[in-house]
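Reproducibility note. Readers wishing to regenerate the assembly model reported in the main text can use the exact inputs given here. Chain order matters: entities are listed in the order in which they were concatenated for prediction.
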Amino acid sequence: MTIIIDILSAVFLAGGAFFCLVGGIGLVRMPDFYTRMHGASVTETLGAGFMLIGLMLQAGLTLVAVKLAMIGLLILFASPTATHALAKAALLSGLKPKLGEQHSGEGGISSKP
Amino acid sequence: MARSLITLVGLILFWVLLSGMFVPFLLAAGLGSAIAVLLFTRRLDIIAGEAPPTYLNWFKFIVYCPWLIREIMVAAWDVTKRILHPKMPISPTMVEFSPTQKTDTGLVIHANSITLTPGTISVEVEPGRFLVHALSREGGASLAGSEMDSRCTSLERH
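Running the prediction on these inputs yields the following structure tokens for the assembly.
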């Protein structure tokens, strides 16, 4: 039984690590401030979420699991608020978002991935 | 006054839950912290006013959470594919639309849900006007009158 939980938690931790990495790659690859925030939101939702689930599986039914769930709730409430405040501050301070197609002549935008 | 008392009791219970230790010093520290936080919130004047618990249909909110988590996962996977795609097929857009929520609670839940979903960020939030930055044109176009909008409106209780 413990081996199943260990494997499950390893899968979740690896998934969380993957999405954190993807968020980081997004941060580097995206062209401007606003689009970079979209990259970061992958980290804070799926990355952090999968990590927390993996850790909760390791903790079992203990107070630690409750605390991890609290951290998850905190992230779910605080991160969109912070992201919104950041985006609004950027817009108010006059940072214009780059809109439309970012890549010249590749035509990768109209076609769905 | 009743709300202050509920806040205080809630804060103390939260402290006990997080500490899990019943040493007199720690309990006293918890009580002191709870009172301090209560005084701060009173000074900020955020205790009174529209209190979410009474303006929210809690049963529908509990149904809403798993639906939102599913939406987040679908959207996050979409953004992941766009990030890892060699050509990075993004088309950033700013979309302005009118949400149908009437209460602050409903508006906040809708705006936070939009931001929490990867690929869309609510930039300006006012009653009757949302300004949203979307990573792709498809994501931006699907915002006005979306299922999320109608679900958030059905969470409200006047």
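We highlight two features of this model. The radius of gyration of chain A is 18 Å. Chain A touches chain B through 43 residues (CB under 8 Å).
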